[in-house]
Amino acid sequence: MRYALMYSHREIYKFVDPGSLKGLEGLYAFMRACLPLDERRVFLAQVEASYFGLAVGDGGIGRVVVKEFEAFNSIVADLIESAVEEGTLIPAAKDGDLVSTLRLVMDGISFRVAVGRRLSPEAQLKMLDRVVDEYRRE
Question: Is the pTM of this model over 0.70?
Answer without folding.
Answer: yes
